[in-house]
Specification:
Layout lengths: L6 E4 L5 E4 L2 H44 L7 H17 L5 E2 L3 E6 L2 E9 L4 H4 L6 E9 L24 E4 L22 H13 L20 H23 L2 H9 L10 H17 L1
Antiparallel strand pairs: 1-2, 3-4, 4-5, 5-6, 6-7
Helix pairs in contact: 2-5, 6-7
Amino acid sequence: MKGNGWRKATYAHGGTESFRNNDELTRRTDQTVRQKSVLEKRDPLLRRAAGWLKLLRDANRSFACQPERHVDASEVTRRFRSDLWPTLKSRGFARRTERVAWRDVGDSVDVIEVNLIGPLADTVGCTSYSFGAFVASLPAYLGSNRVKSDSDGRRRPHYWECELKMELSKTLPQPWFRPFASSAHGNLPESFVKHRQGLMKVLRTDVHDRMDIWFVREDGANLSECVADLLLVIERDGLPLLELLHDPRAVAEIVRDGHLSIRPDSPVGRDVLNAAIGACDKRA
């Protein structure tokens, strides 16, 4: 305490401050206590806010460290298994693998086959797990000894083993196909590189759409949409055609009209037409 009436206060942090008299010291002390009380009340809110900010920072940091999500062929296969094949089983396609399903109708075998693009992705300009699909029918009068059978003797043809087949077309607009977008890998043999360069000269390289392929994006965001559209096209276009192909008279008309890419004047067209006419005669 100074002789002129000044008072000196010493704080816990070591600082000092002088006051004129005891009243002023008392007022400042009360003010400090009130400020401390306010800070103590705010502390829980500040601590809570800081906690949330830390959680957000940690979450953002964790998300940023995660690699970009990519699907693969196995995930597409699982989606077929859950969303496609059960519906087709209710349509009679009780026998299947992961890519092909068969239905026995009288002496005919109907086929629905889905193929992933796989190693053709670079040439096509899409992901390797994008897909296309065919429907086909193999009547007994067009049977082949080359077609494999299962353990029960039932035929299991692929679409390419059937003369009566149709490639399905999607309804979705997907103008994202960019062939040869990636650079050739440096470890490819020179023959592969030259073959790729040759393909680039004769195939499209611009960004475009393809109606025969469902483009599944790299992150799989549109996978459900693609499978749903495939099922829609199968039910709208594929199944009605298969019903029509069970009638040999309808098959004869289809061949005469040049449908299903079968030319009536080609060797294959003549064979199918004669076989269908013969089946009609046997039914008469």
